[in-house]
Design a protein that fits this description.
Layout (H helix, E strand, L loop, with lengths): L1 E6 L4 H12 L7 E6 L4 H7 L5 E4 L5 E3 L4 H8 L1
Parallel strand pairs: 1-2
Antiparallel strand pairs: 1-3, 3-4
Length: 77
């Protein structure tokens, strides 16, 4: 599964989200692409106050912070 991971520079919450992703049962099957929202004005306007955000590329569903491992697993099903 392909996941877009919207982040920002020096984002401690993004590091926390990365740690949760790494704990996922599906971590080995995920392709996670990080996007720094500061590098794209459209992404910045969409996600500036919401990062970190995960977005499934297959159905467009988003999971915004805060989330825990259980919520992530449900999101990935």
């Amino acid at each position: 599964m392909r996941i877009a991971f919207y982040t920002g520079p020096q984002c401690s919450l993004c590091h926390d989200a990365e740690a949760i992703i790494a704990q996922s049962e599906q971590a080995d099957t995920l392709t996670v692409t990080q996007y720094n929202i500061r590098e794209d004005s459209e992404l910045y306007h969409l996600y500036a106050v919401r990062i970190p955000v995960l977005k499934r590329e297959d159905n467009g569903q988003e999971l915004g912070w805060p989330f825990n491992l259980e919520e992530l697993e449900l999101f990935l099903k």
